[in-house]
Design brief:
Layout: H1 2-23, H2 36-53, H3 66-77, H4 86-96, H5 113-126, H6 134-147, H7 177-189, H8 197-208, H9 254-266, H10 274-285, H11 300-314, E1 318-320, E2 326-328, H12 329-340, H13 359-370
Antiparallel strand pairs: 1-2
Helix pairs in contact: 2-13, 3-4, 3-5, 3-13, 5-6, 5-7, 7-8, 7-9, 8-9, 9-10, 9-11, 11-13
Length: 379
């Protein structure tokens, strides 16, 4: 554990050094600061909304499966509620009801086992202060690793295959970067560092999702749109929800670029690596919170929480945009969330993509994002 923490600290310090170098002597953005009182009121209203929305069985949006409940419960705990809080305790008990004999934590006979199990591992890790979920997390970790393309139980997928190292929803036709980032979140929560074989395999897949031709990415798509951003998957011929360029390249977009950046950092890629530098440059060139860059309103709140996780992992405090202006991304994100919160304390996206019309899920995403924006002095 000490070595893993020391390695992580080194990565963050290196990232800060790169950031300070690239941001030197630039003007600062002049966004108004949001005080701690407003921050806490925003969080409290969101928590109260979710307490009112919880079903008697402890679930949130049960029609969508246990994944939403895992997202919401993690968000509640990261914003001050303990595992013993009645709302959290009921949700954890509900999620425990989805533990399967093979170690997965998912609705039986569904198609999204990897997705739901990954979210559940992160949630139970957050609640595991007394180690009561050690066995559950260990069994789920073993299950997730068995589902990885090219893993120990995945014969016939060698390193040359574009699916290699990736994770998908579950029994799905191909892996993708979105589910692979959730997979890596879960592995990290379970204690797996950059030297873990599954993490190393995942890095191969993540690198191939980047629009950057390197020794780590020689896929046909790598050179067609070399902007350093990321897209959904190089498998199945290559897919980007943002569409294609005129020459057939796959367009990069915000949520996947931050997912790729975060995943590389979790996998131990250093700040001076061309992959990280190119990803950060893309983020600088497309900095903004009015939309999910490249996707408009689609997946906006998924983008917010991925944006926050990635920039926190990188160690960056300020991000320089394409005009050379430095931004305190935490304040910018906080302002965006405060301005979008509804009177009842929830958030919702009018764009229907990826279930973001469901207020419980989106409010869970917002709480995950807010946990990274906490003003100094707030617990």
């Amino acid at each position: 554990m000490f070595c893993r923490t020391l390695c992580r600290l080194s990565l963050l310090l290196a990232a800060v050094a790169v950031a300070q170098s690239s941001l030197a002597d630039q003007p600062a953005a002049t966004a108004a600061k949001i005080d701690a009182k407003t921050y806490q009121q925003t969080v409290d209203r969101a928590i109260q909304f979710l307490k009112n929305k919880q079903a008697p069985d402890g679930s949130f949006a049960a029609q969508a499966g246990p994944g939403v409940t895992a997202v919401v419960t993690t968000g509640l705990m990261r914003n001050g509620l303990s595992p013993d809080d009645p709302t959290v305790a009921k949700a954890l008990k509900y999620l425990q009801g989805f533990v399967q004999a093979d170690g997965s934590v998912c609705a039986p006979k569904n198609m999204v086992q990897n997705y739901e199990t990954s979210l559940a591992v992160v949630c139970f890790h957050e609640a595991n202060g007394n180690h009561q979920y050690d066995a559950l997390i260990k069994n789920a970790e073993k299950y997730l690793k068995s589902m990885q393309w090219g893993g120990d139980n995945q014969e016939g997928v060698d390193k040359s295959d574009p699916k290699y190292g990736g994770a998908g929803y579950g029994k799905h036709k191909r892996p993708d970067l979105s589910n692979t980032q959730f997979f890596l979140d879960a592995l990290q929560a379970a204690g797996n560092g950059p030297d873990d074989p599954a993490v190393k395999r995942a890095l191969v897949f993540v690198s191939r999702c980047q629009n950057l031709e390197t020794e780590n990415n020689t896929t046909p798509m790598a050179a067609k749109n070399p902007d350093g951003g990321f897209y959904y998957t190089p498998a199945a011929g290559g897919i980007s929800d943002a569409g294609t360029t005129e020459n057939g390249g796959l367009r990069s977009y915000g949520s996947m670029t931050y997912a790729g950046l975060k995943s590389m950092i979790y996998a131990g890629v250093k700040a001076d690596d061309p992959r990280v530098k190119a990803a950060i440059k893309w983020c600088q060139m497309h900095y903004g919170l009015d939309s999910n860059p490249g996707m408009g309103a689609a997946g906006l709140y998924y983008y917010y929480q991925t944006f926050a996780k990635a920039l926190a992992a990188s160690g960056l405090t300020l991000v320089q945009d394409d005009k050379g202006v430095k931004h305190d991304w935490r304040q910018d994100l906080l302002a965006a969330l405060v301005s979008r919160q509804r009177p009842n304390g929830s958030w919702v996206n009018e764009d229907k993509h990826w279930y973001e019309t469901e207020p419980s899920l989106v409010t869970g995403y917002a709480l995950l994002s807010l946990a990274y924006c906490r003003p100094a002095g707030e617990k």
